[in-house]
Amino acid sequence: MGVALAGRRRLIRLGAAVVVLALVAFGVVRALTAGAAPEESKAAETVEVDKGAVTTEVATTGTLQAAQTRSLSFAVSGTVETVKVRAGTTVTAGQVLATVDDTDAVEAVDDAQEALDDAREALTKASSTSSSTGCDVAAAYTTASASPSASASPSATATTSPTPTRTKTSKPSPTGTKTCSSSTSRGGDSGGDAILSAQQRVNAAEVTLEKAEEARDGATITAPIAGKIISVGGKVGSGATSGSTFITLADVYDMQISADFPEADADRLAVGQKAVITLADRAGETFDATVVQVDPVGTSDGTLTRFGVVLSFDDAPDELLIGQSANVRVTTGSKDDVLRVPSTAVHDVSGENGTVLKGGAATQVRLGLRGDQFTEIVSGLAAGDPVARSW
After folding, report:
1. What is the assigned CATH class of domain 68-102+219-250?
2. Which residue intervals of the chain bear CATH 2.40.30.170?
3. What is the per-residue pLDDT across 223-264, written as a single tens digit (0 to 9) for each?
4. Model confidence, pTM
5. What CA–CA distance (Å, rounded) separates 63 from 211?
6. Distance between CA 391 and CA 203 in Å, rounded?
7. How far apart are CA 378 and CA 357, in angstroms?
8. What tens digit of pLDDT does each residue of 124-175 get?
9. Which CATH number applies to 255-388?
10. What is the DSSP secondary-structure string of 24-37?
11. Contact 308, 328 (CB under 8 A)
Protein backbone atom coordinates (compact mmCIF):
# COMPACT_ATOMS: atom_id res chain seq x y z
CA MET A 1 0.00 0.00 0.00
CA GLY A 2 2.89 2.34 0.70
CA VAL A 3 4.26 1.60 -2.76
CA ALA A 4 0.95 2.45 -4.34
CA LEU A 5 0.79 5.72 -2.47
CA ALA A 6 4.30 6.71 -3.59
CA GLY A 7 3.41 5.93 -7.22
CA ARG A 8 0.33 8.04 -7.01
CA ARG A 9 2.36 10.97 -5.73
CA ARG A 10 4.80 10.63 -8.63
CA LEU A 11 1.94 10.73 -11.07
CA ILE A 12 0.54 13.85 -9.45
CA ARG A 13 3.92 15.53 -9.62
CA LEU A 14 4.38 14.57 -13.24
CA GLY A 15 0.94 15.91 -14.13
CA ALA A 16 1.67 19.20 -12.42
CA ALA A 17 4.94 19.53 -14.33
CA VAL A 18 3.15 18.93 -17.61
CA VAL A 19 0.57 21.62 -16.79
CA VAL A 20 3.29 24.10 -15.92
CA LEU A 21 5.16 23.42 -19.16
CA ALA A 22 1.93 23.82 -21.12
CA LEU A 23 1.22 27.17 -19.50
CA VAL A 24 4.76 28.41 -20.22
CA ALA A 25 4.50 27.35 -23.84
CA PHE A 26 1.14 29.10 -24.19
CA GLY A 27 2.55 32.30 -22.72
CA VAL A 28 5.49 32.31 -25.11
CA VAL A 29 3.27 31.73 -28.14
CA ARG A 30 0.86 34.43 -26.97
CA ALA A 31 3.67 36.94 -26.52
CA LEU A 32 5.13 36.23 -29.94
CA THR A 33 1.74 36.51 -31.57
CA ALA A 34 0.90 39.77 -29.76
CA GLY A 35 4.19 41.33 -30.88
CA ALA A 36 3.72 40.34 -34.50
CA ALA A 37 0.17 41.58 -34.93
CA PRO A 38 0.89 45.33 -34.47
CA GLU A 39 3.91 45.06 -36.75
CA GLU A 40 1.77 43.59 -39.50
CA SER A 41 -0.89 46.20 -38.92
CA LYS A 42 1.69 48.97 -38.88
CA ALA A 43 3.36 47.77 -42.02
CA ALA A 44 0.01 47.51 -43.73
CA GLU A 45 -0.92 51.16 -42.98
CA THR A 46 -0.61 53.12 -46.18
CA VAL A 47 -1.29 56.64 -47.46
CA GLU A 48 -1.66 58.01 -50.94
CA VAL A 49 0.87 60.34 -52.52
CA ASP A 50 -0.81 63.76 -52.76
CA LYS A 51 -0.08 67.37 -53.62
CA GLY A 52 0.31 70.11 -51.05
CA ALA A 53 2.71 72.36 -49.17
CA VAL A 54 6.07 71.27 -47.83
CA THR A 55 7.84 73.43 -45.27
CA THR A 56 11.04 73.20 -43.27
CA GLU A 57 11.38 74.80 -39.85
CA VAL A 58 13.90 75.27 -37.08
CA ALA A 59 12.89 75.93 -33.50
CA THR A 60 14.43 77.17 -30.28
CA THR A 61 13.65 79.21 -27.17
CA GLY A 62 14.40 82.92 -26.92
CA THR A 63 13.74 85.92 -24.69
CA LEU A 64 11.96 89.21 -25.24
CA GLN A 65 14.01 92.40 -25.20
CA ALA A 66 13.43 96.08 -25.91
CA ALA A 67 14.39 97.24 -29.40
CA GLN A 68 16.24 100.16 -27.84
CA THR A 69 17.42 101.02 -24.35
CA ARG A 70 18.53 104.51 -23.26
CA SER A 71 21.04 105.23 -20.50
CA LEU A 72 20.16 108.64 -19.04
CA SER A 73 22.47 110.82 -16.96
CA PHE A 74 22.76 114.35 -15.55
CA ALA A 75 24.95 116.87 -17.38
CA VAL A 76 26.16 118.31 -14.07
CA SER A 77 27.24 116.78 -10.80
CA GLY A 78 25.19 117.57 -7.72
CA THR A 79 22.83 116.40 -5.02
CA VAL A 80 19.70 114.63 -6.19
CA GLU A 81 16.66 116.77 -5.37
CA THR A 82 13.83 114.72 -6.88
CA VAL A 83 13.30 111.22 -8.29
CA LYS A 84 9.86 110.96 -9.85
CA VAL A 85 10.02 107.34 -11.11
CA ARG A 86 11.07 103.88 -10.04
CA ALA A 87 11.85 100.60 -11.82
CA GLY A 88 8.77 99.44 -13.71
CA THR A 89 7.23 102.91 -14.13
CA THR A 90 5.80 103.57 -17.59
CA VAL A 91 6.65 107.07 -18.86
CA THR A 92 5.89 109.29 -21.85
CA ALA A 93 8.33 111.25 -23.99
CA GLY A 94 9.29 114.56 -22.37
CA GLN A 95 8.26 113.52 -18.86
CA VAL A 96 10.55 114.76 -16.05
CA LEU A 97 12.22 111.82 -14.33
CA ALA A 98 14.71 113.31 -11.84
CA THR A 99 16.52 116.54 -10.93
CA VAL A 100 19.67 117.64 -9.09
CA ASP A 101 20.41 120.93 -7.31
CA ASP A 102 20.90 123.46 -10.14
CA THR A 103 21.87 126.52 -8.05
CA ASP A 104 25.43 126.65 -9.38
CA ALA A 105 24.26 125.96 -12.93
CA VAL A 106 21.74 128.82 -12.80
CA GLU A 107 24.39 131.21 -11.46
CA ALA A 108 26.73 130.18 -14.25
CA VAL A 109 24.03 131.03 -16.82
CA ASP A 110 23.50 134.46 -15.23
CA ASP A 111 27.24 135.17 -15.27
CA ALA A 112 27.54 134.05 -18.89
CA GLN A 113 24.59 136.26 -19.89
CA GLU A 114 26.19 139.30 -18.22
CA ALA A 115 29.49 138.60 -19.98
CA LEU A 116 27.68 138.40 -23.31
CA ASP A 117 25.85 141.69 -22.68
CA ASP A 118 29.17 143.39 -21.89
CA ALA A 119 30.79 141.98 -25.02
CA ARG A 120 27.93 143.18 -27.22
CA GLU A 121 28.12 146.65 -25.68
CA ALA A 122 31.86 146.75 -26.37
CA LEU A 123 31.23 145.74 -29.98
CA THR A 124 28.70 148.53 -30.39
CA LYS A 125 31.16 151.11 -29.04
CA ALA A 126 33.97 149.85 -31.27
CA SER A 127 31.74 150.07 -34.33
CA SER A 128 30.61 153.61 -33.42
CA THR A 129 34.20 154.85 -32.86
CA SER A 130 35.38 153.42 -36.15
CA SER A 131 32.54 155.13 -38.03
CA SER A 132 33.28 158.58 -36.50
CA THR A 133 37.02 158.51 -37.40
CA GLY A 134 36.86 156.92 -40.83
CA CYS A 135 36.99 158.70 -44.28
CA ASP A 136 34.00 159.35 -46.49
CA VAL A 137 35.53 157.69 -49.53
CA ALA A 138 32.29 157.69 -51.50
CA ALA A 139 31.98 161.49 -51.17
CA ALA A 140 35.59 161.91 -52.28
CA TYR A 141 34.93 159.88 -55.43
CA THR A 142 31.87 162.00 -56.23
CA THR A 143 33.52 165.45 -55.85
CA ALA A 144 36.71 164.42 -57.61
CA SER A 145 35.02 164.68 -61.03
CA ALA A 146 33.56 168.23 -60.57
CA SER A 147 36.46 170.19 -62.27
CA PRO A 148 39.65 169.38 -64.20
CA SER A 149 41.73 172.00 -62.28
CA ALA A 150 42.46 172.65 -58.63
CA SER A 151 41.26 175.79 -56.81
CA ALA A 152 43.10 177.64 -54.05
CA SER A 153 39.87 178.90 -52.49
CA PRO A 154 39.02 177.23 -49.22
CA SER A 155 35.44 176.96 -50.41
CA ALA A 156 36.34 175.47 -53.79
CA THR A 157 36.12 171.80 -54.53
CA ALA A 158 39.45 170.01 -54.94
CA THR A 159 39.78 168.34 -58.32
CA THR A 160 43.20 166.84 -58.66
CA SER A 161 42.22 164.22 -61.23
CA PRO A 162 39.12 162.81 -62.93
CA THR A 163 39.98 159.55 -61.20
CA PRO A 164 40.91 159.86 -57.54
CA THR A 165 44.13 158.13 -56.50
CA ARG A 166 45.44 157.38 -53.03
CA THR A 167 48.61 159.17 -51.87
CA LYS A 168 50.44 159.17 -48.62
CA THR A 169 49.74 162.91 -48.10
CA SER A 170 46.14 163.54 -49.00
CA LYS A 171 42.93 162.34 -50.65
CA PRO A 172 40.38 164.42 -52.51
CA SER A 173 37.44 165.36 -50.30
CA PRO A 174 34.32 167.41 -50.77
CA THR A 175 33.88 170.82 -49.20
CA GLY A 176 33.47 170.56 -45.48
CA THR A 177 34.64 166.88 -45.45
CA LYS A 178 37.72 165.99 -43.49
CA THR A 179 40.71 164.96 -45.62
CA CYS A 180 41.97 161.36 -45.12
CA SER A 181 45.59 161.64 -44.04
CA SER A 182 48.01 158.86 -43.39
CA SER A 183 47.40 159.17 -39.68
CA THR A 184 43.65 158.86 -40.24
CA SER A 185 44.17 155.74 -42.33
CA ARG A 186 46.20 154.15 -39.57
CA GLY A 187 43.45 155.12 -37.14
CA GLY A 188 40.94 153.36 -39.38
CA ASP A 189 43.05 150.17 -39.24
CA SER A 190 43.11 150.37 -35.47
CA GLY A 191 39.34 150.75 -35.49
CA GLY A 192 39.00 147.58 -37.58
CA ASP A 193 41.18 145.68 -35.15
CA ALA A 194 39.02 146.89 -32.28
CA ILE A 195 35.83 145.71 -34.02
CA LEU A 196 37.38 142.31 -34.78
CA SER A 197 38.50 141.89 -31.20
CA ALA A 198 35.09 142.90 -29.88
CA GLN A 199 33.32 140.48 -32.23
CA GLN A 200 35.57 137.61 -31.14
CA ARG A 201 34.71 138.42 -27.55
CA VAL A 202 31.00 138.28 -28.41
CA ASN A 203 31.43 134.91 -30.15
CA ALA A 204 33.25 133.44 -27.16
CA ALA A 205 30.61 134.78 -24.75
CA GLU A 206 27.82 133.21 -26.84
CA VAL A 207 29.53 129.80 -26.73
CA THR A 208 30.00 130.09 -22.97
CA LEU A 209 26.34 130.97 -22.48
CA GLU A 210 25.21 128.07 -24.66
CA LYS A 211 27.27 125.61 -22.63
CA ALA A 212 26.02 127.10 -19.36
CA GLU A 213 22.41 126.74 -20.50
CA GLU A 214 23.02 123.12 -21.53
CA ALA A 215 24.50 122.43 -18.10
CA ARG A 216 21.51 124.06 -16.40
CA ASP A 217 19.08 122.05 -18.52
CA GLY A 218 21.19 118.96 -17.80
CA ALA A 219 20.31 119.22 -14.13
CA THR A 220 16.97 117.69 -15.12
CA ILE A 221 16.54 114.26 -16.73
CA THR A 222 13.57 113.98 -19.07
CA ALA A 223 12.41 110.92 -20.98
CA PRO A 224 13.55 111.14 -24.63
CA ILE A 225 11.11 108.38 -25.64
CA ALA A 226 8.06 106.68 -24.23
CA GLY A 227 8.83 103.44 -22.44
CA LYS A 228 9.38 101.70 -19.14
CA ILE A 229 11.98 102.47 -16.46
CA ILE A 230 14.37 99.54 -16.06
CA SER A 231 16.54 100.88 -13.26
CA VAL A 232 17.16 103.97 -11.11
CA GLY A 233 20.69 104.47 -9.79
CA GLY A 234 20.09 106.82 -6.86
CA LYS A 235 17.66 108.43 -4.45
CA VAL A 236 16.86 111.88 -3.12
CA GLY A 237 19.82 113.27 -1.19
CA SER A 238 22.40 111.06 -2.87
CA GLY A 239 25.15 112.43 -5.06
CA ALA A 240 24.99 112.21 -8.85
CA THR A 241 28.03 112.41 -11.11
CA SER A 242 27.90 114.12 -14.48
CA GLY A 243 27.81 111.59 -17.30
CA SER A 244 27.16 108.55 -15.10
CA THR A 245 24.03 106.54 -15.88
CA PHE A 246 21.32 107.40 -13.37
CA ILE A 247 18.22 105.99 -15.10
CA THR A 248 17.84 103.24 -17.70
CA LEU A 249 14.80 103.52 -19.97
CA ALA A 250 13.59 100.83 -22.39
CA ASP A 251 11.25 101.19 -25.35
CA VAL A 252 8.72 98.46 -24.55
CA TYR A 253 6.48 99.47 -27.42
CA ASP A 254 8.88 98.00 -29.97
CA MET A 255 9.86 94.62 -28.53
CA GLN A 256 12.08 92.04 -30.21
CA ILE A 257 12.94 88.40 -29.63
CA SER A 258 16.55 87.37 -29.08
CA ALA A 259 17.33 83.70 -29.70
CA ASP A 260 20.28 81.36 -30.27
CA PHE A 261 20.36 78.54 -32.82
CA PRO A 262 22.89 75.70 -33.09
CA GLU A 263 25.13 75.88 -36.12
CA ALA A 264 23.33 72.94 -37.75
CA ASP A 265 20.20 75.09 -37.96
CA ALA A 266 21.81 78.53 -38.26
CA ASP A 267 23.16 77.91 -41.75
CA ARG A 268 19.56 77.79 -42.98
CA LEU A 269 18.54 81.08 -41.39
CA ALA A 270 18.37 84.38 -43.28
CA VAL A 271 17.05 87.89 -42.76
CA GLY A 272 13.45 88.22 -43.92
CA GLN A 273 12.33 84.68 -43.06
CA LYS A 274 8.97 84.37 -41.33
CA ALA A 275 8.52 82.93 -37.86
CA VAL A 276 5.83 82.08 -35.32
CA ILE A 277 6.18 83.06 -31.66
CA THR A 278 4.34 81.54 -28.69
CA LEU A 279 4.45 82.89 -25.14
CA ALA A 280 3.97 80.95 -21.92
CA ASP A 281 1.56 83.52 -20.45
CA ARG A 282 -0.64 83.55 -23.57
CA ALA A 283 -1.58 79.93 -24.07
CA GLY A 284 -3.17 79.11 -27.41
CA GLU A 285 -2.04 82.36 -29.06
CA THR A 286 0.57 82.67 -31.80
CA PHE A 287 2.28 85.82 -33.06
CA ASP A 288 3.91 86.38 -36.42
CA ALA A 289 7.47 87.66 -36.53
CA THR A 290 10.29 88.24 -39.03
CA VAL A 291 14.01 87.55 -38.78
CA VAL A 292 15.80 90.93 -38.79
CA GLN A 293 19.34 89.89 -37.84
CA VAL A 294 21.54 86.80 -37.97
CA ASP A 295 24.91 87.07 -36.27
CA PRO A 296 27.74 86.36 -38.74
CA VAL A 297 29.95 84.96 -35.96
CA GLY A 298 28.91 82.27 -33.51
CA THR A 299 29.81 81.77 -29.86
CA SER A 300 31.04 78.47 -28.47
CA ASP A 301 30.78 77.01 -24.98
CA GLY A 302 33.43 74.43 -25.79
CA THR A 303 31.03 71.77 -27.02
CA LEU A 304 28.45 73.59 -29.15
CA THR A 305 28.58 76.68 -31.34
CA ARG A 306 25.45 78.82 -31.46
CA PHE A 307 24.48 81.83 -33.55
CA GLY A 308 22.41 84.73 -32.28
CA VAL A 309 19.25 85.73 -34.13
CA VAL A 310 16.96 88.74 -33.59
CA LEU A 311 13.31 88.67 -34.65
CA SER A 312 10.78 91.49 -34.74
CA PHE A 313 7.05 91.10 -34.12
CA ASP A 314 4.93 91.86 -37.17
CA ASP A 315 2.23 93.12 -34.80
CA ALA A 316 3.43 93.07 -31.20
CA PRO A 317 0.86 92.38 -28.47
CA ASP A 318 0.45 94.78 -25.58
CA GLU A 319 1.98 94.49 -22.11
CA LEU A 320 4.96 92.33 -23.01
CA LEU A 321 7.52 91.67 -20.28
CA ILE A 322 11.21 92.28 -20.85
CA GLY A 323 13.12 89.05 -20.36
CA GLN A 324 10.17 86.67 -20.61
CA SER A 325 10.74 83.47 -22.55
CA ALA A 326 9.34 82.80 -26.00
CA ASN A 327 9.19 79.72 -28.20
CA VAL A 328 10.47 80.50 -31.68
CA ARG A 329 9.72 78.55 -34.86
CA VAL A 330 11.29 79.89 -38.07
CA THR A 331 10.24 78.73 -41.52
CA THR A 332 13.46 78.21 -43.48
CA GLY A 333 11.93 76.76 -46.66
CA SER A 334 8.55 76.35 -48.28
CA LYS A 335 7.02 74.97 -51.47
CA ASP A 336 3.36 74.86 -52.46
CA ASP A 337 1.42 72.34 -54.57
CA VAL A 338 4.15 69.71 -54.90
CA LEU A 339 4.02 65.89 -54.77
CA ARG A 340 4.62 64.81 -51.19
CA VAL A 341 4.60 61.88 -48.78
CA PRO A 342 4.88 61.80 -44.99
CA SER A 343 8.52 62.22 -44.00
CA THR A 344 8.24 59.00 -41.94
CA ALA A 345 7.65 57.11 -45.18
CA VAL A 346 11.10 57.93 -46.56
CA HIS A 347 14.11 55.81 -45.56
CA ASP A 348 17.72 55.28 -46.60
CA VAL A 349 18.15 58.93 -47.55
CA SER A 350 21.38 59.66 -49.38
CA GLY A 351 21.70 63.13 -50.86
CA GLU A 352 18.68 63.64 -53.09
CA ASN A 353 17.71 59.95 -53.15
CA GLY A 354 15.59 57.89 -50.79
CA THR A 355 13.47 54.75 -50.54
CA VAL A 356 9.74 54.33 -49.95
CA LEU A 357 7.65 51.16 -49.61
CA LYS A 358 5.17 51.08 -52.51
CA GLY A 359 2.85 48.09 -52.67
CA GLY A 360 5.11 46.18 -50.33
CA ALA A 361 8.18 46.72 -52.53
CA ALA A 362 11.04 49.13 -51.88
CA THR A 363 11.00 51.90 -54.50
CA GLN A 364 13.77 54.41 -55.18
CA VAL A 365 12.62 58.04 -55.37
CA ARG A 366 14.24 61.40 -55.90
CA LEU A 367 13.64 63.89 -53.11
CA GLY A 368 13.15 67.65 -53.04
CA LEU A 369 12.45 69.75 -49.98
CA ARG A 370 12.44 67.65 -46.80
CA GLY A 371 10.27 68.96 -43.98
CA ASP A 372 9.40 67.70 -40.54
CA GLN A 373 5.95 66.49 -41.61
CA PHE A 374 6.17 66.02 -45.38
CA THR A 375 8.89 65.40 -47.96
CA GLU A 376 8.70 66.52 -51.59
CA ILE A 377 8.89 63.77 -54.21
CA VAL A 378 10.57 64.94 -57.43
CA SER A 379 10.37 61.64 -59.31
CA GLY A 380 9.62 57.94 -58.77
CA LEU A 381 5.99 58.30 -57.64
CA ALA A 382 2.74 59.71 -58.97
CA ALA A 383 -0.22 61.29 -57.23
CA GLY A 384 -2.47 58.59 -55.77
CA ASP A 385 0.24 55.92 -55.40
CA PRO A 386 -0.11 54.05 -52.09
CA VAL A 387 2.97 54.03 -49.89
CA ALA A 388 3.59 52.77 -46.39
CA ARG A 389 3.28 55.60 -43.87
CA SER A 390 6.24 54.19 -41.98
CA TRP A 391 8.22 50.95 -42.03
Report:
1. mainly beta
2. 255-388
3. 999 999 999 999 999 999 988 999 999 998 889 999 999 999
4. 0.56
5. 42
6. 88
7. 16
8. 888 888 776 554 433 333 333 444 433 333 333 333 334 444 444 444 444 4
9. 2.40.30.170
10. HHHHHHHHHHHHHH
11. no
